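Quick one - inputs below.
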Amino acid sequence: MARKAVATKAKTQSNIPEFTKEQDLEAYREMLLIRRFEEKAGQMYGMGLIGGFCHLYIGQEAVVTGITMASEKGKDAQITGYRDHGHMLVMGLDPKGVMAELTGRSGGLSRGKGGSMHMFSNEHRFYGGNGIVGAQASLGTGLAFAAKYKGDGSVSIAYFGDGAANQGQVYESFNMAKLWKLPVVFIIENNKYAMGTSIERASATTDFSQRGASFDIPGEQVDGMDVRMVYDAAQRAIEHARSGKGPFILEMLTYRYRGHSMSDPAKYRTKEEVTQYRQERDPIEQVKARLIAGGFQTEEELKAIENGIRAIVTEAADFATNDPEPDAAELWTDITISA
Amino acid sequence: MPQILMPALSPTMEEGKLSKWLVKVGDTVSSGDVLAEIETDKATMEVESIDSGVVTELLVAEGTEGVPVNTPIAVILAEGESAAPAPVAKTAPEPSEAPVVPAEKAAEAAPSQASVPAAPKFQAENDPDLPEGVEMVEMTVRQALNEAMAEELRRDKDVFIIGEEVAEYQGAYKITQNLLQEFGPERIIDTPITEHGFAGLAVGAAFAGLKPIVEFMTWNFAMQAIDQIINSAAKQLYMSGGQVKAPMVFRGPNGVASRVGAQHSQDYSAWYSHIPGLTVIAPYSAADAKGLLKAAIRSPNPVIFLENEVLYGSTGLVPKMDDFLLPIGKARIARRGADVTIVSFSMGMRYATQATEKLVAAGVDVELIDLRTLRPLDSDTVIESVKKTGRLVTVEEGWPQGGIGAELSARVMEQAFDYLDAPVLRVTGKDVPMPYAANLEKLALPNVDEVIAAVNAVTYRS
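Output:
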């Protein structure tokens, strides 16, 4: 009882890798796009334009951004759970298509038939967007199986949360991934709460980077609020997998500022905790401060980037608001493929 | 966009409490700043600004209860923006004048939503004509299944087999015998005992373009994997708007074995046939087993292939052809007749066939239909038959409630009600978990006498 959440700083990472100006700028753009997109999605949800569940990624932007920067875009496969908007934006899926899927319109990435949790792109090798907690661990292991079977040199990156980390199929997947030396990197996005249950109340051990120890899968704990740390660890993990050594686990210590979904009682954590993360650890503010301190960018230049992103988000929101709903005939399409 | 509106926390929320303002008039805010807290009986939420600017007005006092969703609650002006007159908030529409029929009453009678478009009709092909003089080879269902997989493994390198004991052990029921020797351990893959995991792994491999054949040692164990089969494989095409396919086969022995008790004796035909997105096949004869398994492996859809342990050793004639394929979704008329229609599939066909022999000998002209595929269900063939005979008896090993017979009964009632001369009768497994004791197990299963009794009842011969 009353074990404290101490895992706010990663313990296995020492040197802080330096980013070039270009890397910092790329990270800044990607993370800001996610942040502004998600804020807009939250607002549109509030206006009744988005239905059902809507899980926002605000606060966790550095995780998917750093990992995707370390991966080979278009070659490496990525798969995640239901908190998936950020993954799609960073992987290059069209923000208009993502937002229009959120509003259930015909121009949505799944033609309005998937919703927030179910979007995919064969072209960008994004395999969802999965609504069942933990399912993506097995599916992602299967993507790695296919990579090895075909010998195409790709790596599968499977994200799941601290909640999913207690699901049985995760360990079934760890076992097979190691047994068959599959090229998969498991990213455990530890944002400290599975819905409203803190890791201390749900997990017998809270160092998730060691969850593969029984299978001899190496793991690292990473400061998931610092995109440089994420990128650095991801490079090593992806290289490990790609070189044929089998799976790697990265536990990303991160934090979501918003509720689990839109309807959240906000009673399971203190306001101070949220405020502290936002003020002291914010992934975007960290990059912004570096860019300004390094003399790389002025406030005005960053403002121009921000305005550009705002325009993308506004365009996406306008499209998603005005695009028509799917044709009624879509009800019966895509159930099976006629042979 | 100067107005901030009262947000909804869920699609069902209509109003909430504005519990607290965190800004005051004159404050400069930027996007992401928390403006206010709102509250409902089940949730609280912070309202964030999505624009930068200066708060010029707070329209709703903090502590106000029952603020309707989408009511303007504050005005924020961006730099350089001038205060335009705030539009009047939407109010309830004026009641229209003297409606003859109250609106609610009118709505009861007429459907208010757009009508549901008609479902597309599945049209199965007929069985192909066999080449003249083709050699018919007698083989077991086991051999037929084995040949089907071997042929498809030779044809397509993306096809592989994954499951427990499929390789070194040569298959728990020897269906994969000798495949390891021919195709090697990269394509015939023994798994740990981990159904949920390897089913999910195979679905992921299918998403990435491979064509897995997943063998479940028996379908009873697939319940550990049913989430991946239904939530991942069956729904993927639809949820992705047609983008991501799961071309794969899940196969293994289904139904009642012999004296293995409740957890190892269960018929999943009705379970999987319930799911849109899946194709479900349950063959009886050796030829159907071969032709349909080959078709299943080539299908771009996830296919549930339900075999039967008791039938593995039964023999039948299979045409000797390079590529013997049968159409999915087409029932086979095993015997043509005019007096009564018996419909069954898989092991049920054994009871139905034996009953038919006795009934025909007794002068009843039975039409016997083997469904072969359970989804898409070839009810056309059944309906046409019932229109001719006016009588239907269904036979299955599964439980009665929500079973295949129940579905056929409903479809016949909907589409051939006027042709029926007797109620549809179902012969099913009894509505109990499978007992172990030999006598009780026998009682729990359907049998030939029950089929004969049902036919006698619907033909008023009893």
